[in-house]
Amino acid sequence: PPPWMKTKRQFHGDAHLRLECYAAWAHHFVRFVQEMSREGVPIWAVSVQNEPEAAQIWESCIYTAEEERDFVRDALGPALEDADLGEVKIVIW
């Protein structure tokens, strides 16, 4: 996520996605899948975050297992369903 969506408001390090940004970040996934489809690139799956427990010196975001579960359950899954993208799989770590 962009810095404004994260607890430490930075691209790198050990920041977490802010709860109040779950819906906006889920909308980003929806738009990505929709725009790729419009360009002829069907997306069959998305991943919440590569290495969700790794604080990096490059762009990263920390998700505990509970945070990843909650984001998928409360924001990403419903957003994909609402956009008629329920066939897109969600890969979790």
From TrEMBL:
The protein's UniProt keywords, in alphabetical order, are: Hydrolase, Signal
* GO BP, one annotated term: glucosylceramide catabolic process
InterPro entries, from UniProt? GH (IPR017853), Glyco_hydro_30 (IPR001139), Glyco_hydro_30_TIM-barrel (IPR033453)
User: What's a Pfam family in this record?
Assistant: Glyco_hydro_30
> Might you report a single GO cellular component term?
membrane
Coiled coil ranges = none
Q: Which residues form the Glycosyl hydrolase family 30 TIM-barrel domain?
A: 2-92
Q: Which molecular function terms from Gene Ontology are attached?
A: glucosylceramidase activity
**Assigned protein family:** Belongs to the glycosyl hydrolase 30 family.
Protein name (Swiss-Prot/TrEMBL): Glycosyl hydrolase family 30 TIM-barrel domain-containing protein
What organism is recorded for this protein? Polarella glacialis (Dinoflagellate)
